[in-house]
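Explain this record to help learners:
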Amino acid sequence: MSTTPGPEMCGITAISASEWLQKPGSVGRAVLGTVKITDDSGNELPPQQVGNVCFADGPRFRISQ
């Protein structure tokens, strides 16, 4: 068995139907990990900016072969 380490973190978001009706298109709040929006260099962006969706502080994602 071999593993491929990487910086990827696992994360989960959740949203109720009533919350989604208030904010269509939302994926909800993080329930596992912390959601961060970053630029292409990995720098965290302020609210209301478009960027990459990343998870931090969650369990590491590992691929085993």
User: Anything to note?
Assistant: Residues 1-5 have pLDDT under 50 and may be disordered. The helical segments are 17-22. The first strand starts at residue 3 and ends at 4.
